[in-house]
Amino acid sequence: MNKTRTIFLLAGILAVGAMWVASGQASGPRAGSAPTPIATVAPPPATPTSTRTQTQTGQVILSTASSNRFIHTGGGELHVDVSLAGIAPKATLARRQPVNLALVIDRSGSMGGKKIADARAAAQAVVAQLRDGDRLALVIYDDVAEVLRPSTLISEASRADLRRAIATIQDRGATALWAGLDLGRREVLKHAPGGYVSRVVLISDGLANVGIASQAGVSALARQAQSQGVHVTSMGVGADFDSNMMTAIAEHGGGHYYFIDDSAAMATIFSKELQTMLATVAKSAELHLAMAPGVELLEVYGYTFEQRGVTAIVKLPDIYGGLDRKVMLRLRVPAGAEGNRQLASVALHFIDAQTGKPAVAETRAVVAQVMDQKKIEGGQDGEVVAKAEQATAAKNLDKAMDAYGKGDVAGAQAVLRAQIAKSAGLNAKLRNKKLAEAIDDMRDKLGKTASAAPASEEGRLLQKAGKFRAYKLAK
User: Fold this and answer.
1) Topology (CATH level 3) of domain 97-278
2) pLDDT per position as a tens digit, 286-311
3) What is the DSSP-derived secondary structure letter of residue 380?
4) Residue 183, helix vs strand vs coil
5) What percent of the chain has pLDDT over 90?
6) pLDDT for 447-466, tens place per residue?
7) Burial letters for 120-157: b for 16+ Cβ neighbours within 10 Å, e otherwise?
8) Cross-strand pairs, 117
9) For a 10 Å CB count at each end of the chain, is N or C smaller?
10) Can you name the CATH fold of 53-91+282-380?
């Protein structure tokens, strides 16, 4: 009996359903029109897990990603990670462009002994690594600057002459840094661009104290060199150089900055810098950031930039194979209606190192404006958030080390404690390895500020090491 009743019940339901479908079709299309097809409703598209956009031009990959996929319709701030990657297959490196290099070596009295001996060894290592067809100039400076050897085409014969010249370098006098940098720039310019990767590598262990000695004056010269296609890398040795000036030289010169606490490491650092030149895939790189209407660029962490209307121009070092560089932006987004919003057009302008021709890689930074706060809370891109926190930590580590160098130990420690607490709290959720390493390094610096007096050699080295760590963390 129960089975029979169930069958009748199912039959009744099916009959009612058939009548409802027929009724709906009768009241649907007009007479003479084609019947409406029964469509399968597709599931809604999955919410993207990232706002990352990516493009490749030549051997350069350019990408952007926002710290959150969403932002409130009322507007607010967020971070945008602009990432650059250089690709250099071995076959490409075998056909690498020739190098046009000037080594500018401080030989002032403070470089005496082990430092000058290690500088000579490092310069000899560069000569050994250069190929026939590369160019090298040797410039030395103390009270005055001198071209020890003008820009020389590398060959078997010229190598021997350059080695003999390097062996004669001895310490004496003061530090005419500006004059040395200017002579190095002029030597490289004799053959730039000329199909070369052109660079000046400046080394110093002290304070500029002859001629133009201000950070602004030296930075202006480095900026001029970069505008002429000659990038400037700076290397600070020991405890007594001006780290802010040496960093500024690299920033404005579009090169790299290195802190060398032990002069014995000089040859390794020289070799590392030379390898970046050998692996160059893009020269004269400029990042053009055109803000969308209403979007405001608040900060570019770790880089200087020039504002041209709504476009910010960030000049970058040459891009080489194996490079993974970030340019972290902080933006303010205005209120707007729900929906997708473009934040900025991002374009990397460069000279392709293989073809020698101008090239552009273009993409855009995007976000979606929503009213749903839960979407915003769940929309974080953990990788970008961690990178942004590293950039913020770099800024505050540099600030703390400046305070420490001026003798304000309590102020430096307060900045470090606040940043450590903030970063550690955030990383309890993110569990980002690089951010964890940055936190550990800040804790290390905090502990050492309590045991080393700022004016001691240990304290001066600590300050240089902290600022160098901040420089690398921002990149």
Assistant:
1) Rossmann fold (3.40.50)
2) 999 999 999 999 999 999 899 998 89
3) B
4) helix
5) 82
6) 999 999 999 999 999 999 99
7) bebbbebbeebeeebbbbbbbbbeebebbbebbebeee
8) none
9) N
10) Immunoglobulin-like (2.60.40)
